[in-house]
Amino acid sequence: MNNSLSYESFKKSPYRSIKLSSYFDAYDALFSKYRDKPITFLEVGVLGGGSLFMWRDYFGEKARIIGVDLNPNAKKWERFGFEIYVGDQSDESFWKGLLSKVGELDVVLDDGGHTYAQQVITVESLISSIRDGGVLVVEDTHTSYMPGYGIKSHSFVEYAKLLIDKINYRFVEFKDFDCEKRVWSIRFFESMVAFEINRNAQSISSIVDNNGEDDKAIDYLYHDENAVVFLKNINEKFRKYYSGSKIAGYLKKIIANVILYPRFMKEKFKIKKYF
Ligand SMILES: C[S@@+](CC[C@H](N)C(=O)[O-])C[C@H]1O[C@@H](n2cnc3c(N)ncnc32)[C@H](O)[C@@H]1O
Q: pTM of the full predicted structure?
């Protein structure tokens, strides 16, 4: 924290702001590439104005700094050159109206009310309006483990975990699953989740071959196991039925799972202590 540029800006702010000490290293890691650039930054949660001045100092004069708060008093910070919008972050129509006025965003930081509905609706409402290369960050996600912010089964962290699955579903062989195409990657920090946008890289993946010389190396993944030899034989014998048939493909995987079950159970006990 001590060598962090965002912490320097935080200390310089003339108005009060309270952040977690762990945030400053994460801010530097996530935001440094936007410094001194003509970006549009939006923070949900203005309160006493402290973070608006921090971000002005951190991003520089070229940045457009937008604050959002439910408290209409936040409007007073407009006279310092900030754009302020008053509204409820858990209201999808509020976000629609705001986006029609401000256009696309580069960086969003949610430091608003921290209920699960507020956090999830903010991400869902803004994620498609983040410019390529941009990032949306939700902080104080520790509320997912605390009472008073919503129903735990639908906490923000549960939502983020679901998106992890949906990002992995982009793998070409899972094309029947509902995959996530709006977010490239998700980074988890203490009490903070960052959604990164990289439009070229967030479509369904394909398997690529560099067509280099094939050394015919043996893949030792299951080498030397009778079960695997058996599986290999079935595979070769019935290949003509598998190809092109989805059901046969699934059947093949189920047979593999049954045959390898004893081995997988042994492996499960080996790694159980890490879960
Ligand atoms: C933690 S404070 C923001 C602190 C500020 N970012 C700072 O560092 O100085 C949270 C703010 O979110 C606002 N807020 C609470 N619920 C909100 C909602 N539903 N929509 C928009 N803002 C909300 C509160 O009025 C409060 O000003």
A: 0.92
How far, in Å, is the centroid of ligand 1 from the Cα of 251?
A: 53
Query: Is 67 touching ligand 1 by the criterion CB < 6 Å?
Result: no
Residue 73 Cβ < 6 Å to ligand 1: no
**Strand pairing partners for 193?**
138, 188
Kindly state if the Cβ of 45 falls inside 6 Å of ligand 1. yes
Position 221 in a domain: no
The total number of structural domains that make up the chain: 2
* 45 contacts 112 by C-beta, under 8 angstroms: yes
- Say how many Å lie between the CA of residue 68 and the centre of ligand 1: 8
Give the pLDDT of residue 112: 98
Token representation of residue 116: 């699960």
**Rounded to an integer, what distance in angstroms lies between the CA atom of residue 195 and that of residue 184?**
7
Range of the domain at 267: 226-274
